[in-house]
Structure to design on (316 residues):
């Protein structure tokens, strides 16, 4: 099956690290991780959280001497901690912004971006709402800054006469940023400000599930975990209504809501902390299994090879 191939974003300080190497490894650490102990701090995207947490749990089964804490303060919040040197790894559902990269550079933090999976950003509604598909234009009209859409009939006369309640990620979320910059594409890179917001996707699920006429969006994994509570909308980008799924995202059919997911690794901490290196090596070596276990879409061969090369380059 054809899988969506995302262009790898090379950020400042990383270009020299993308080498044509084949092997992964954590410096002088043993290949199997035996005897490695220590702590690893991960924070950032709530969307990537299930993958990083799954990696931590799987590694713990092999080596319980490595203590990994995984948080989900949002992509933006994660980068704040990462560039302040408070974390070793930052989960991100979008590439790092120029201003965030500048903060890291000023702090002397060199990092490597690793593409880890694909997501199908999912727009959901209350399960009883008689709306099944939105066009991309309707999606933009619904979420754009200053939107006057307060009733579903405002979007389409055939839609129910039902007031709209919204539950969306907060501005620290990479999911918010992706919807604003890559889907709505408003100059302000913002969304309407009259919807309820939270960095916790579970709270968004609860809001949508418990409010008639509601709408929200979050990563596909959170939808799959709560498919009995909320309804996923299909999206029509000009070629008919397409439902979110691993298959439609891999086939390049679920546009424009299929997106890349990343982890960012502090290079110095990878090389100086054997536990960090062991966690990252394990993560990438078992990436397909981790992605599938966490209900994400694994990388295609080309993207996985690029991720392996980037990881090998950290040692350079």
């Amino acid at each position: 099956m054809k899988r969506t191939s995302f262009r790898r974003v090379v950020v400042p300080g990383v270009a020299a690290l993308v080498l044509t190497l084949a092997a992964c490894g954590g410096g002088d650490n043993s290949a199997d991780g035996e005897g490695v102990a220590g702590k690893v701090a991960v924070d950032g995207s709530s969307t990537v959280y299930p993958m990083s947490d799954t990696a931590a749990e799987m590694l713990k089964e092999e080596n319980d001497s490595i203590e990994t804490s995984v948080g989900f303060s949002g992509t933006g919040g994660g980068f704040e901690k990462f560039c302040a040197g408070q974390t070793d790894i930052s989960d991100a559902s979008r590439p790092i912004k120029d201003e965030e990269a500048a903060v890291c550079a000023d702090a002397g933090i060199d990092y490597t971006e690793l593409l880890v999976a694909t997501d199908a950003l999912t727009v959901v509604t209350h399960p009883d709402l008689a709306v099944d598909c939105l066009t991309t234009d309707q999606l933009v009209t619904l979420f754009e800054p200053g939107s006057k859409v307060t009733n579903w009939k405002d979007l389409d006369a055939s839609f129910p006469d039902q007031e709209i309640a919204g539950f969306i990620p907060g501005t620290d979320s990479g999911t918010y940023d992706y919807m604003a910059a890559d889907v709505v594409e408003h100059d302000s890179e913002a969304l309407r400000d009259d919807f309820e917001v939270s960095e916790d996707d579970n709270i968004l699920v609860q809001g949508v599930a418990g409010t008639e006429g509601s709408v929200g969006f979050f990563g596909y994994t959170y939808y799959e975990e709560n498919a009995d509570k909320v309804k996923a909308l299909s999206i029509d980008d000009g070629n008919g209504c397409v439902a979110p799924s691993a298959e439609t995202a891999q086939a390049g059919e679920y546009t424009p809501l299929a997106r890349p997911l990343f982890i960012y690794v502090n290079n110095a901490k990878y090389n100086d902390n054997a536990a960090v290196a062991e966690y990252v090596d394990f993560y990438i070596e078992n990436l397909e299994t981790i992605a599938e276990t966490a209900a994400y879409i694994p990388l295609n061969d080309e993207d996985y090879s690029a991720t392996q090369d980037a990881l090998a380059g950290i040692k350079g």
The radius of gyration is 20 Å. The first strand starts at residue 38 and ends at 44. Residues 122-256 form a domain with the D-Maltodextrin-Binding Protein; domain 2 fold (CATH 3.40.190.10). Residues 1-31 have pLDDT under 50 and may be disordered.
